[in-house]
Amino acid sequence: SLAALAPLAAAHGAVTSYVIGGTNYQGYDGYAPSNTPKTIQYPWPSYDPIMNVGDAKVKCNGGSSAQLTANVAAGQNVTAVWKQWTHQQGPVMVWMYHCAGEFSTCNSTGKGWFKIDQMGMWGNVMNSNNWGTAIVYKNLKWSSVIPKNLAPGNYLIRHELIALHQANTPQFYAECAQLVVTGSGQDVPPADYMYKIPGYAPQSDPGITVDIYQGAATSYTCPAGGVWPGFK
Predict the structure, then answer these.
(1) How far apart are CA 160 and CA 173, in angstroms?
(2) Are 90 and 165 spatial neighbours (Cβ–Cβ below 8 Å)?
(3) DSSP structure string for 91-138
(4) β-bridge mates for residue 162, sequence order
(5) Helix, strand, or coil (residue 81)
């Protein structure tokens, strides 16, 4: 029925631009690719969700390269902007990946993804709007600080929203962009804070396959651990 399809039909959203160091960077528009200028963002095909955490497209919504880069000083903010976002239950996770060489040869397949920011649920009511994605729903943006002590270099930044509004049917939305981090930092997280994407958690992870309506849980833990506490 149309009513049954409605939750999926409305389940659309993607990062469409960035504000970095006070400069606006237009992102990709999946519905008008021929009209999209060169961008720092990996191109993506649609606002539609990825339904399995093991899907290769979960990394960057199917994108794999970009033509431009944005400079950001360690300690500055990177703000992702969404044209639309429709769900208020689920976490926000912001990841980075250090590219050892040029962006053109950075396939980001290794165990090198780490988090710089995340927000799951606050309070103890799963069926609520007390979630990171509810803030995106309200503001259509999410701002994170590039850690002051992060070593300079070429990085991918990945903004991931997981929508949990359908019981035990998570939806993944993630887009990636290319950043050149500057500064005098010398740190990257240790190996136990590094993950592969796809592969950062199984589909059965309690932070992924969740029933926010009938489940007995009163707390939520984001999949793939926390942000390295050594970041400043």
Answers:
(1) 6
(2) yes
(3) -EEEEEEEESS-GGG----SS-EEEEEEE-B-SS-SSSS-BHHHHHHH
(4) 172
(5) strand
List the Cα angle 189/149/194 in 5-degree steps: 15
Contacts of residue 65, defined as CB under 8 A and 6 or more positions apart, other chains included, come to: 42, 103, 104
CB atoms within 10 A of CB 178: 21
- Give the angle 186-188-192 at the CA atoms, nearest 5°: 150
CA distances to 17, 58, 120 from 42, in Å? 11, 13, 25
> How confident is the prediction along the chain (232 residues), in pLDDT tens digits per residue?
333 333 444 548 999 999 998 899 999 877 666 677 899 999 998 889 999 999 999 999 998 889 999 999 999 999 999 999 999 999 999 999 999 999 999 999 999 999 999 999 999 999 999 999 999 999 999 999 999 999 999 999 999 999 999 999 999 999 999 999 999 999 999 999 999 999 999 999 999 999 999 988 999 999 999 999 999 9
pTM: 0.94
Residue closest to 158 by CA, chosen among 116, 189, 110, 192: 116
Structural contact between residues 52 and 174, judged by C-beta atoms closer than 8 angstroms? no
- Is residue 215 within 8 A of residue 208, CB to CB? The reply is no
Query: CA gyration radius for the chain?
Result: 17
